Amino acid sequence: MQLTWDAINHDWRRNVVGFNYDKQRSLWRELRLDRLTHWQYAAMIAALASLWIGLLLAWLLWRRRQHEPCPHALECVMRPACERRIASLASRKDRLPTRPGPRSAGRSSPPVFG
Question: SS3 sequence, 7-34?
């Protein structure tokens, strides 16, 4: 266990703490990033940030659709309640007194101007 921990400490000191200017330059040369200008670095960082944000938004939308029971969530929530209300009104229709509607009101009343 002690040897493993010493190996981890050695790698940490060599690769993280000891990452100096010369090692950074050699890494940039290996990746061929030492030939880029400042605006190319900015464009590359902006492109990577846009890609990361796009992937994050796509994942969030996918996750949201996985948890939504219906694409029209309000309709899915309200429809059963409305159907129950209509069914209860339809079952009470036989018990409710019928009243004339607005269209029949004109036929049964005498003319006002006449």
Answer: HHHHHHHHHHHCCCHHHHHHHHHHCCCC
